[in-house]
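Priority: medium. Attachment 1 of 2:
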């Protein structure tokens, strides 16, 4: 427990120690609110201005990365495809694995989350997915939950009607915690693929342990391209499977990462909407008004 707390702020930031970073952020936020309430907003206004400026600069840098990412993805996919074509039998098996990953990710993203939106958020799933489609497309093409964060927050606030504070807190948190695509679906399917390929048989308790380890891994991961390989290596190491098996399956990592990132972002969007609904910070008027405008435009056309 003691190791979870930060001892060197800059060291933890450089090492991407997620738990320590969250604790640091919470401490700064609590101190900011305390000073603002005790001494007035003017006392902390310069600090707020600096934070806002840094955020805008980082988002602009991310926009540059997003613009260039499709070209890099094309090159990486071409390299992976050329390596796979050298072994036709392996190619068939890997194509089947890619298909399974896409099916599972889309079921999680659009079926499971649809039930959550309908019954927990009291929101129309179809309308919600349409309103956040831009964020989904960005996540699919960039393979980065962090890279799609600016457009994700914008769509949640201006199209879905999620309160700004909820969107700015829940969406970024979803880029490090609870990423179902990269920390659960992908590692588990890789492990099952390896077990079937080598003819090993596991009992139910071993599968439950593997699922529990994925749940632990989902508590803190970086929302950037390639994180699925890191989580898969961590899982294989935890359940005593050879890490070399993950390396052999990296040629399809970039192809499947698109669907996995989309699943992660959709999950974060749904979580933000449900939290806003439960805390009565979801503006239904914004959610409905956008649809009425579209219907009027369609009628005039």
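Attachment 2 of 2:
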């Amino acid at each position: 427990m003691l190791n979870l707390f930060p001892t060197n702020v800059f060291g933890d930031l450089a090492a991407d120690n997620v738990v320590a970073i969250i604790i640091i952020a919470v401490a700064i936020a609590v101190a900011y609110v305390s000073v603002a309430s005790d001494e007035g907003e003017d006392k902390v206004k310069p600090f707020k201005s600096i934070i806002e400026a840094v955020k805008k600069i980082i988002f602009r840098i991310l926009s540059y990365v997003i613009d260039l990412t499709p070209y890099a993805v094309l090159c990486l996919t071409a390299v992976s495809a050329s390596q796979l074509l050298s072994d036709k039998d392996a190619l068939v098996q890997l194509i089947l694995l890619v298909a399974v990953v896409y099916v599972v990710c889309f079921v999680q993203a659009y079926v499971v989350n649809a039930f959550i939106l309908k019954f927990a958020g009291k929101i129309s799933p179809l309308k919600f997915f349409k309103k956040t489609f831009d964020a989904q497309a960005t996540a699919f093409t960039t393979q980065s939950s962090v890279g799609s964060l600016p457009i994700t927050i914008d769509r949640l606030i201006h199209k879905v009607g999620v309160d700004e504070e909820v969107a700015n807190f829940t969406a970024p948190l979803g880029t490090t915690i609870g990423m179902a695509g990269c920390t659960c679906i992908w590692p588990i399917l890789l492990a099952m693929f390896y077990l079937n390929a080598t003819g090993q048989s596991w009992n139910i308790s071993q599968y439950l342990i593997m699922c529990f380890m994925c749940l632990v891994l989902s508590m803190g991961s970086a929302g950037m391209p390639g994180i699925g390989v890191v989580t898969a290596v961590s899982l294989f190491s935890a359940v005593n499977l050879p890490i070399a098996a993950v390396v052999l399956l990296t040629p399809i990592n970039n192809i499947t990462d698109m669907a996995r990132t989309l699943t992660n972002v959709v999950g974060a969007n749904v979580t933000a909407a449900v939290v806003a609904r439960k805390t009565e910070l979801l503006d239904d008027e914004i959610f409905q008004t956008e649809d009425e405008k579209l219907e009027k435009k369609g009628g005039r056309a």
